[in-house]
Write a structure and sequence with these properties.
The chain is mainly beta and about 600 residues long. The protein folds into four domains: about 15-170, Sandwich (Jelly Rolls); about 180-320, Jelly Rolls (Sandwich), CATH 2.60.120; about 345-505, Galactose-binding domain-like (Jelly Rolls), CATH 2.60.120.260; about 520-590, Sandwich (Immunoglobulin-like), CATH 2.60.40.3110. About 0% of the residues lie in helices and about 45% in strands. The termini are far apart. About 45% of the residues are buried.
């Protein structure tokens, strides 16, 4: 049977061949502050890679030291995935060096091929190219990546000190003769069902969960199914560091995890947990996903608990961290319930406005329609986009009784960004603004200059328009009757339908932006075309455009730092100190 690969990182090649003693691995993940997405690419937070690339993509990988003579590296590699098109069609990842992309010179290219899924990564490695069209860089230079005759998803770019013995797609680490010495390999047939099953009951959820000898895997499984090893597993003296599960399914499930326990299924006995909802294409073609393993000594029964339908072929316990570890799913869904004392306001009606207080319905109006012409759809406002503004009239906050805001909404995307990139910002006292229904998002933000929101609530992708979830945020103290203005701050090509807005006297939980600065000794302000950050301690700073696009991501030292060369417009600056305290500032650059 074919076994696909996923999340097999450059570290997996160590120990197989001295040619793979790489000196530099550049991870193309959102947390890498040296990565700059210039054109046609996004950070895929769910999978921890760069995606949505094209033949027009330009990515800056940061600075690389090639050595005075240009011989610091003899080969390059790329962790690449592409689940569409034909196999055997040559595609190229091209690397350039230079201070700017326009000034850069091509120094090598790597041939890549389609893989067995959009996120089934393979490592392709090639020796540095020679010839008139290639020029080896020397010294420290910025590296730029482009595609030719194809494109795909990227998880890392590797610079190898030594040449590659066999160029092209590289073998898996488990094909190495040394692998067996570092692994305890546990095949699926040693497990037994560990839940009560009534095979005669057609409604029993576990009646079809079983081991299939033909496909050599556990299949037909569902959420909360559990198996137990027939005999205790020897964990040695605690030397095992990684757990690798070989799984298969069709599609992706952002909420699905697989859990591993010893002796009994209870929280304190969990030794590993890994996201298994990755995008795969075959139920019985198995993909390894690796995760950290807690220290376990001695012999114990091993339990496996499923979070959803995923086939399991085998489990490897490893004495070294050989595989790229499967990250937690970057898509974290929230669905927060309001308290029983919360009041809810809904948008009934069609067109630009609706509701009738005499009939017990809140009055609302679409003040700014946005690019897609936001309008009522009976029970929600649809066709929304970045920059939409909706007014909720005559809302009684009483004597400051309400402590948080909850917004029940839906969105057809699985993930639309962090709260800084996607949110509903609530304002009051905007009656003097001369709104124009055709205003652009930039016009809206300029009009809001000098006004602070009373709450900022996360907007999230829920996967489907008919899947509604609720997010929450703390509410500033507000008394009396006011008009609430809800401003949609969303990425491009994203909309969100609001079904209910709750005001809750119970502070409860919330993940919205805190409306006050929480870092002592931090001052952030703008002067004409510059942003100045004055901090008494080091802070990590991310600057977003008002549409949610990150434009800067740096760690700043204590002291005064000036950030220049930002285009005119409104920006959101998020600062985080070493203790995790966060400060949010809205700034106008002129």
């Amino acid at each position: 049977m074919k076994k696909n690969t996923l999340l097999i990182g450059a570290l997996a090649l160590l120990g197989m061949n001295s040619a793979f003693a790489q000196d530099l691995v550049i991870e193309t993940m959102k947390g890498n502050e040296n990565i700059e997405l210039v054109t046609d690419a996004i950070f895929d937070v769910g999978y921890g890679n760069i995606g949505q690339t094209s033949t027009s993509t330009i990515i800056c990988l940061g600075e690389v030291d090639f050595g005075a003579d240009g011989n610091a590296y003899q080969a390059t590699g790329v962790e690449f995935a592409q689940g569409w098109g034909d196999f055997g069609v040559e595609r190229y990842v091209v690397l350039h060096a230079g201070n700017t992309f326009e000034e850069s010179v091509t120094f090598t290219e790597m041939t890549v091929d389609r893989t067995f899924g959009y996120h089934c990564f393979e490592t392709f490695a090639w020796n540095m190219k020679e010839g008139e069209e290639f020029e080896r860089p020397t010294g420290k230079q910025k590296v730029w990546l482009t595609f030719r005759e194809g494109n795909g998803n990227l998880r890392s770019v590797i610079f190898y000190k030594n040449t590659i013995a066999e160029e092209g797609m590289q073998p898996w680490i488990n094909e190495s003769p040394e692998y067996a010495d570092k692994a305890n390999i546990i095949y699926g047939d040693i497990f037994r069902v560990a839940v009560d099953v009534d095979p005669e009951n057609p409604d029993d959820p576990f009646k079809d969960c079983k081991y299939n000898e033909e496909t050599e895997c556990w299949g037909g499984v569902v959420k909360d199914f559990i198996v137990k090893s027939a005999e205790p597993i020897d964990f040695g003296e605690g030397e095992f560091q990684q757990l690798v599960a070989y799984i298969g399914h069709d599609g992706e499930r952002y909420k699905e995890y697989m859990e591993f326990y010893i002796d009994e299924v209870k929280p304190e006995n969990m030794i590993a947990r890994t996201w298994t909802g990755i995008n795969l294409q075959k139920w019985n073609d198995f993909t390894p996903v690796a995760t950290k393993l807690k220290e376990v000594k001695g012999s114990h029964y091993l339990f496996v608990k499923w979070g959803d339908a995923t086939n399991l072929h085998r489990i490897d316990l490893l004495k070294e961290n050989l595989w790229f570890e499967n990250p937690d799913c970057g898509v974290v869904y929230e669905d927060i319930a309001p308290s029983e004392n919360a009041v809810v306001f809904v948008t009934k009606g069609a067109g630009d406005e609706g509701g009738d207080w005499s009939q017990g319905d809140m009055e609302w109006e679409v003040i700014v329609k946005g690019g897609d012409g936001a309008r009522g759809e009976g029970s929600n406002i649809g066709y929304t986009s970045n920059g939409v503004v909706v007014a909720y009239y005559d809302i009684d906050f009483k004597d400051g009784d309400y402590k948080r805001v909850l917004i029940n909404h839906s969105c057809d995307k699985n993930y639309i960004g962090t709260i800084e990139e996607a949110n509903f910002s609530l304002y009051i006292d905007l009656d003097n603004i001369n709104w124009n229904s055709g205003s652009t998002p930039e016009d809206v933000q300029n009009a809001l200059a000098g006004h602070e929101p009373i709450a900022v609530v996360r907007a999230q992708g829920t996967g489907k328009w008919d899947t509604k979830m609720t997010t929450a945020a703390a509410l500033k103290e507000v008394k009396g009757e006011h008009t609430i203005y809800v401003v949609y701050n969303l990425p491009s090509s994203v909309g969100a339908n609001i079904y209910g807005l709750y005001l809750d006297p119970d502070a409860g939980t919330g993940t919205g932006l805190k409306p006050t600065t929480t870092i002592e000794g931090l001052n952030v302000y703008s002067v004409n075309s510059e942003i100045i950050v004055n901090a008494t301690e080091p802070v990590s700073v991310v600057i977003y455009t008002i549409s949610g696009m990150p434009v800067a991501n740096k760690i700043l030292p204590a002291g005064n730092t000036t950030i220049s060369n930002l285009p005119e417009g409104m920006y959101l600056l998020k600062a985080t100190n070493q203790n995790g305290a966060v400060s949010i500032s809205k700034l106008m650059v002129k």
